[in-house]
Write a structure and sequence with these properties.
Length: 260
């Protein structure tokens, strides 16, 4: 990158524009990657982030600022979110920035401000699963989380999306810890129906079924769910991991060869 001081000076002398802001932002990120956090912070503080149009760059700059102790990264995320909403950006982009903003506020222990945001989003869109899951994240960060409140939120998530991975896995784990495996089965069955290529779900399914029908039957029952695995690379990969977990060496080798 050359002389880091000259990079900062070059930005100060450059004409303010989208291209210049994005180019120097990338230079600042490279400085951070190379271990020059002080110089990176100095450059990123000078950049007019309102000129950055590339959302990925803006998100990364905001997080980079926060990592170097510059709380203006929060302001960047707030402004970014406002701009996305005003421009009616795709829901996925808005959701990503919402999550980054709340996660960053929580990392700074600013739970109160995070709660204000999430509650306002829920008020404007009470059916949003993302908003509800953020509310759970907030509740879990409190000194004394309200487990009943968390359960109610997850139940409301399942009313909107009965296959939601996070909510179903929560109840699976909850009932597993209580030794109520029949109840856990209800939720893990929903989770694996739509997320069978998730190894965490597959392992939880196996664990619950082992308690209900025994290890061998549970293993065979899980494998039977992947009858058409040859058509899917992702499923072959999960199968290879399952065989590894269960010490099924010969079958594991077969799956790994097919993955390769």
């Amino acid at each position: 990158l050359g002389d880091t001081d000259s990079i900062t000076e070059a930005y100060s002398d450059a004409r303010a524009s989208k291209d210049n802001s994005e180019i120097f932002a990338l230079a600042g990120l490279e400085l951070l990657k190379s271990g020059k956090s002080g110089k990176s912070a100095e450059l990123l503080q000078k950049i007019d982030t309102s000129l950055i149009e590339n959302q990925q760059i803006l998100n990364t700059v905001s997080l980079a600022k926060l990592s170097t102790g510059d709380s203006s990264g929060i302001i960047d995320l707030e402004n970014s979110l406002t701009r996305l909403i005003e421009n009616k950006a795709p829901t996925q982009e808005i959701t990503k920035v919402k999550v980054l903003l709340i996660s960053s506020l929580l990392a700074l222990d600013n739970i109160q401000k995070a709660e204000v945001y999430v509650n306002s989003w829920i008020s404007s869109n009470p059916k949003s699963i993302t908003n509800k899951l953020l509310l759970v994240q907030l509740e879990r960060r409190k000194p004394s989380p309200d487990d009943n409140k968390i359960q109610k939120i997850y139940h409301s998530v399942l009313l909107t999306d009965e296959y939601n991975l996070v909510a179903n896995l929560y109840f699976t784990n909850m009932f597993t810890k209580l030794g109520e495996y029949s109840s856990a089965e209800k939720y893990i069955n929903k989770a694996i129906e739509k997320h069978e290529n998730n190894i965490t779900i597959a392992k939880s399914y196996l664990n619950v079924q082992e308690q209900l029908i025994g290890k061998d039957k549970a293993f065979n029952q899980l494998i039977s769910r992947y009858a058409n695995y040859e058509d899917s690379f992702e499923t072959r990969l999960v199968l290879a991991q399952i065989y590894l977990i269960e010490n099924q060496a010969d079958e594991r080798a077969k799956e790994q060869n097919q993955v390769l």
